[in-house]
Structures are given as structure tokens and as C-alpha cells.
Amino acid sequence: MPKALIPLADGCEELEAVTLIDLLRRASIEVITASLKDAPVHCSRGTRLLADCLLDDVLEQHFDLFVLPGGLPGADNLNTDARIHTLIRRLEAEGCYIAAICAAPKVLVENGILKGRTLTAYPGSLAAIDTSHVHLTQQPIVIDGKVITSRGPGTAMDFSLQLIELLTDKTVRDRVEAGLQRP
């Protein structure tokens, strides 16, 4: 069974975080949510989430997918946490899929793993950082090798379904999508 890690930081976009958690679990992917601190996570719209564990508890584990929900200041809180950057580098070296949505691709840009790669992100979320070493597009979802990025809350469901297909197969993705009764 594939295993995914979703770190949760104060200010994360709850629609993205919950959509990722829910859809990946519907696909029988083991999802571990890990908070940066020992307290409920206060999301960008006031929702509180209780993570499965602390990030420190899973720093040495192997994952098939590491996915960063966006939102502000959630993406900034992820970006300033050295443990997140260490995990990104280690998991990328191990061949793990690395994914980010909305403002969270800024963490990957700042980390350096997107050098020379194509990505997408929430409009304006990368304005304050140097993106001269990446190719930024306006596509809803971009897959560049084992790095997957997406634009924002409106793309969260398609992003999650794409991740399911990458971790499992199209049959599982189609089964999960059929259960959602999307038009």
C-alpha cells in the first residue's frame, strides 16, 4: 500500500488539505498527517485540524508521496521549517513523489529541487521569490518527473485524483472519481 505524508502548518488551506487527505484515503493510500507543533492546526479560514502525529515522529520514515497543502500563511510556515526542507531533499533522493498546491510550490522553488523544471502555483504566490531558474505556467496541474504542482483550491480534487493515479493506477483513480459523482 502506498504511503503519503501531508504536513499541516497553521494557515494551511483547509479545502486543499482535507481534499487530499480524503481522496487519497478513499484510494486506500495510507495517509499520515503531521503537524509542525504539538497543537491543533488553525487553517486559513478558521477550521481546526488535528494531525495524526507530530512531524518529528515521522522524520525518518519512508513515504511514496510527500504533498504540501497551500494557503497563506501555511505555505510560509512550511517554508521556514528546516525539517520540511530536509525531508524534501531526502525523499526526492529516495525517489518519492513530491507535490505541492496553491502557494506551497514556493517551498519547492526555495528548496531548489525545481531548478530547470516546470511548475504551476497560485497566481502571485511566487512574486516575492526568485523564479529565474524555473519555468512557471498557468496550467491547473503540472507533472515534471516526480514533482507535481497545482494552482489552488479549485484544482484540489483533480490534483488529488492525479496523485492517486500516479501512486496506484487509472482503475483506482476512476473508482474513486466515480464515487464522487462529479459531472
From TrEMBL:
NCBIfam families: not_thiJ (TIGR01383). Keywords: Repeat. Residues 3-165 form the DJ-1/PfpI domain. SUPFAM superfamilies: Class I glutamine amidotransferase-like (SSF52317). It comes from the Bacteria. Gene3D superfamilies: 3.40.50.880. This is 4-methyl-5(B-hydroxyethyl)-thiazole monophosphate biosynthesis. GO terms for cellular component: cytoplasm. InterPro entries: Class_I_gatase-like, DJ-1, DJ-1/PfpI, Prot/Nucl_acid_deglycase.
